[in-house]
Structures are given as C-alpha cells and as structure tokens.
Amino acid sequence: MKFLDEYRESSAAAQVARFIRRIVRRPWTLMEVCGGQTHTIVKSGLMDLLPPEITLVHGPGCPVCVTPVELIDKAIAIAARPETIFCSFGDMLRVPGSSKSLLEVKASGADVRIVYSPLDALKLARANPAREVVFFAVGFETTAPANAMAVWQAEREGIRNFSVLVAHVLVPPAMEAILGSPHCRIHGFLAAGHVCTVMGWEEYTPISRRWHVPIVVTGFEPLDLLEGVQMAVTQLEEGRAEVENQYRRAVRREGNRPAQERIAEVFEVAPRKWRGIGEIPSSGLRLRERYRAFDAEGKFHVDAGAVEEPSECIAGLVLQGLKKPFECPAFGTRCTPETPLGAPMVSSEGACAAYYLYGGRRHEGNESELPSAAPGR
Q: Is residue 152 assigned to a domain?
C-alpha cells in the first residue's frame, strides 16, 4: 500500500475480517493500548466486523486520562500565579481536578495558553524574561523526546524562567501491572505504533515471554488494527506468544536511537501514580539532577495533597479494560464532554469520549472507505 485511503478500504477490511472468522476457534480478549487506536476502532465500527469470539477492550493508553487529580491540582495552582504563563496541549484544559479545571482558571484571568509543542513554550520564555513559563509535559514515550529537547535547549541557553511540570508515563510497566492483576482477562495486546516508533519493540519481548501473551505493534488506520487482530489471533490459536510488528512502515526493532539518547540524558525512570489505577513502580519519568532546576514542582513548591477520585466515575476500571464506557451509570447523562466526571470523557484519546462521539453510529459517508481517528500521544 502507498496511500492512506488504502488503509481504510472497506472491502479489504471485510476480507481480513472473514479470514479472522475462519481461523478463530476459541474466545479471546485483546487490549489495544493506545487511545488513538480506540478511537479508530469505535469510529470505524471495527468491533462489528469481528466474530463474537473476539472481544476488544481498551487500555490505559491515554496519557491525559491517567494524569492523577493531584497533578492537575498542582497545574492549576501554578497557573493561577500572576507571574506565570502556563502552557499545555489543548485537551488537558478541561480535565477536572478536585474542584476545577485549567480552563476554569483561565476563565478567571490566569494566563493559560494552548501550544502545539514544548518548543513553543520555550519561545515564550525567551520573549517574556520577566515571566515564569511552565509547560505541562504530558505524554507517553512518544512526546518525551520533544520535551527532553526543550529542557536540554533551555539549559544550553541558560533560560531560567522556563520549567516543565512532568507527567510522563511509560507503557511497558502499565502492561505488566494489568497482566499482574488478579482480575486480568487479557490474552494479547495491540501495542501503540507511535510509542514503538521512538522506543522500538525489543522491550516488549520479556513481557511476552514472562506472561505468555502475544503483543502485536500496530498502526492507527482500520486495516492496521484489523491486521493486528489477525496476527494476534493467529498466534493465540497456534499457541504462540511473540512480539510481531504490523506497523513495519514506521517501526523498527531498535526504534529511534537518537531520540532515546536524548530522553535518557534529560529524564530518569521513577514511580508514577496513574489516575484511577494507583502508583505503578518505574512507570514514569522525572528530570535528572542536572536538569532539576527546570522542574516546576520543585520551583514552585506546590503540594496538592492526596485527592480522592470521584466515587461515581469508573475511569480506573475502563482504563484497565475491566469495564466498557457504556457500563458506567453516569455515561452520557451526568458525564458528558461538556460536564465530565473523569478524564476519559474529555481527552481526544479517551475511551469514554470515543463511545460518546461514535458509539452506536454508522458511517454515513463514502461506503468504500472507513474513517480513522488521528493517533494520539
């Protein structure tokens, strides 16, 4: 294939689905890790193409969704300071903290700005030397190279009015935590292609061997995901558990070595709390000692304290693949994108948002193509 629309061609999708129906003999549950994959699956109606033996559940692959309430509260406290310009990706602004969101703080007069890159925030710091510019560094390994580069560049130029509020999380420890749960019902994973573009897929091999689960790296188009399902089901039916790479047009085994080196220079692995899940050891990144002057938490000495999740929100169960969004009593009523109880209803990568936007709907456009959601972080 050469062109994007070829990965959305419905007759090709139907052919792959027929092949899956021919080979499947037993019930299997697969988890797609990334929220971008979830949006493609729901928007394109891929679950309707699969045989009833195949169940797709949605994992914690939305970094906005797993950012804990305490960190949102710290972001709000920093953003409310009059000397601060607080910069963030747009989907973080409406994520609820314990009492308000960044968007509400912005409406109250705080200087909160949407940027498309941490380097945009660094540019603001250069242009406003009398202001403190803070970037909300949220994301999986996908966005870590750019955030590391911004901190590295700030240190190199001596820009001391720039800092980052780090909320980076790592995929492999989250997969291990899910597999280690007594409630786990996952037989295989569809791994996030953009993460593996940076990190490669070698780090998944020990997980696959230890837990005897197939892991297939996929892209974000409908045919990418269907082929990933086919590859995973083939392994399961044959009794194999290996790492395979469906996303060969973008992912290499070793990943992007220069990007990995920049991440390793600026960040170090640390424990990280995940919203709705709890703390997972070695599942996050923090700035190394050399770059600690650019750590917003340390610079502003904010302490939000422990915060309880809304009792009505089942986001933690959704993020672990234990519940589907429509199983939440508040889904679509008390919890909507306009009045969210939890982050998965807000984020462009959130499973609840995907079901709210596309659940139960059929594509009403060109029947020869399946629509796709853009991949997330």
A: yes
Q: What is the CATH number of the domain that holds 157?
A: 3.40.50.11740
**pLDDT at 111 > cutoff 50:** yes
Q: How far apart are CA 184 and CA 177, in angstroms?
A: 9
| Cα separation, 366 vs 314, whole angstroms | 36
Q: Is the pLDDT of residue 333 over 80?
A: yes
Least confident of 180-184, 227-231, 279-283, 368-372: 368-372
CA dihedral (193, 199, 200, 206) positive or negative: negative
- Burial bucket for residue 366 (CB in 10 Å: 0-12, 13-18, 19+): exposed
Residue 22 burial (C-beta neighbours within 10 Å; 0-12, 13-18, 19+): exposed
Phi/psi for 22 (5° steps) reads -70, -35
Residue 119 falls within a domain, yes or no? yes
Confidence tier at 359 by pLDDT (50, 70, 90): confident
**Tens digits of per-residue pLDDT, 119-153?**
999 999 999 999 999 999 999 999 999 999 999 99
3-state secondary structure of 339: coil
Whole-model pTM?
A: 0.91
Q: From residue 339, how far is each of 93, 96, 211, 307, 334 by CA, in Å?
A: 13, 9, 39, 20, 7
Q: Is residue 166 domain-resident? A: yes
Residue 45 lies in a domain: no
Total domains present in the chain: 1
> What's the Cα-to-Cα distance from 325 to each of 55, 208, 314, 353, rounded to whole Å?
14, 28, 8, 9
Residue type for 305, please?
A: G
H/E segment holding residue 113 = strand 112-114
State the residue range of the domain holding 113. 65-170+255-300
